[in-house]
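Researcher: Quick sanity check before group meeting.
Model: Go ahead. Protein one:
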Amino acid sequence: MSITGWKQFTPFYFVTAMAVCLIGFIGREGLSWTEILLFVTSGLLSWTLIEYVLHRFVFHHDAHSEFGKNLLFRVHLSHHENPSNTKILSSLLISLVIAPAYLLLASVVTGSWRGAFYVLIGVAAGYFYYEWLHFYVHHGRPRLRLLRYLRTYHLLHHHQTPELRFGVTSPLIDLIFGTFRPVDDSTTPTMSGRRAIHRLRRLHRSKTRGAKLSG
């Protein structure tokens, strides 16, 4: 991957520095290392659920208003039309909106603001991994078998099944929610981004017509 490509991650360098400062500020007073590890791991695992819900139910939402359609296209569907277009900064801005709400919820669940901050650090770690992996599968050439599998899995979401395979960091979340489809050596992404967009819109229209008929 070129140096120019890595420059897209510049915002994360600043956020990482802020996270390190935050850890130093909140410390671990009243928390054992086991509790800290549990909080961070919980945040890391919860990211996969956040990723799935955002990707499936928000970014692939069937918007009816022109404003909603334009917003979703700018935020996500433009990436489906042109998969090489990976806007890292826009995803970061969305995360800055979600983070305070998540922190408040984590403080209620853990009963501790200090514990909630460590959970949020775990979520941030999961998000950073997602952004790196997402960028890498579109612009890199993985050598590890696992990364090659994840690359093929995600590209199939783009080019063949935009209504399935929503997990980027892990296909296990798709397995849980019934949107998993296996990948074998003979599976090759072939559909163009524009055709995938048209297929996704056709699926949305058919669902809308089905809902009207059932109503």
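Researcher: Fine. The other one?
Model: Protein two, sequence then structure:
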Amino acid sequence: MTAAVERGECDLLVDVAAELPLQAIARLLGVPQEDRHRLFGWADTTLDHDDHDLGETTERQQQAAGEMFAYGTDLIERRRVEPGDDLLSIVANADLSDPRRRCSSTCSSRPAARPPATRSPPGCSP
């Protein structure tokens, strides 16, 4: 909202409906706020199926998934060294000696995946 106030105008869809959930997800995961739009871009690209069938992937999607994986791997390593009060810090520093606590493919999940309804309001195309 600060940016909207500074601009003297507010687009509720862009400045609130899209931005607020993105900020919350980044905060919960421990993604620095300055990186939240990168995370959104990767997730949006990997979830986009407008130009191909479900189950197929494009080179662009593979590149975005690889970049998101590398970023997530690096962020988890940083959280091991400097833990915070976020979910990635909890996962990165969890005691996995109990097999019931093990989690496979932490970095390959799509943390910014959201239902389409939060990406576009009813009646609007992305």
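Researcher: One line on it for the slide.
Model: The chain has a mean pLDDT of 80.
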